[in-house]
Amino acid sequence: MNPVWPVRLQEGEVGLRPIQARDAREWHQVNDRNRDWLRPWEATVPPVPYTRASARPSFRRMVRQLRAEAAAGRMMPFVVTYQGRLAGQLTVAGITWGSMCSANVGYWVDREIAGRGVMPTAVALAVDHCFFGVGLHRVEVCIRPENAASRRVVEKLGFREEGLRPKYLHIDGAWRDHLAFALTVEDVPEGLLARWRRSRSRPV
């Protein structure tokens, strides 16, 4: 049993809540509408002998897998909401304890609301929960160098760039290089959301 999930997080009009099977219709509406925009950045499954892994599982199967990992304490799968409606997805994955105490974050958002600060707010909510709710020490985000929109999210939040990871993940049908960005709890003693609020209130 995961003691820190399910949880709901909210900041103004932006929220994170656990993904559920009943999100299928709304999730498909948003995801399908954004297919061309998301496909270049979407994780795929390489062909592996003796497995029957699907490149893109059904929504219900995906939710079952995500929630099983969450129940085991290895993941926190959220949908992103904006003004009460599903607007994307954010997953805290690879939760590791012991001497590491770390996790990685992946996300996507509806193109129609990109640029409004929705995803930086959602990431800040998730990171603060990881640090101050869960007790993790480090959170990492890995992004293809070409993915300017996702890079802007971590740049706005002040993530530290830590270098290139060649052929790191299978994305859009091939092994792709990724840039690694990270924060530790020492980087944001006041919380990442507080820092993000402060940066948005500064005069341009």
Structure description:
The protein is of the alpha+beta class and 204 residues long. It is 31% helix and 31% strand. The chain contains six helices and eight strands. It has helices at 24-33, 35-38, 59-71, 118-134, 148-157, 192-201; strands spanning 9-11, 14-18, 76-82, 85-96, 102-109, 138-143, 160-171, 174-184. An eight-stranded mixed sheet has the order 1-2-3-4-5-6-8-7, sandwiched between helices. Helix 4 links the parallel strand 5 and strand 6. Helix 4 (118-134) packs across helix 5. The termini are far apart.
Brief description of this entry?
This protein has 204 residues and is an alpha+beta fold. Helix content is 31%, strand content 31%. A hairpin with a 5-residue loop joins strand 4 and strand 5 (102-109).
Element layout with pairings:
Elements: E1 9-11, E2 14-18, H1 24-33, H2 35-38, H3 59-71, E3 76-82, E4 85-96, E5 102-109, H4 118-134, E6 138-143, H5 148-157, E7 160-171, E8 174-184, H6 192-201
Parallel strand pairs: 5-6
Antiparallel strand pairs: 1-2, 2-3, 3-4, 4-5, 6-8, 7-8
Strand count, sense and barrel status of the largest sheet are: 8 strands, mixed
Strand line-up across the major sheet = 1-2-3-4-5-6-8-7
Distance between termini? 46 Å
Which stretches of 5+ consecutive residues score pLDDT under 50? none
The SSE string, one letter per element, is: EEHHHEEEHEHEEH
The number of strands is: 8
Rg over C-alpha atoms, rounded to the nearest angstrom: 16 Å
Arithmetic mean pLDDT: 92
> How many helices?
6
What is the SS-derived class? alpha+beta
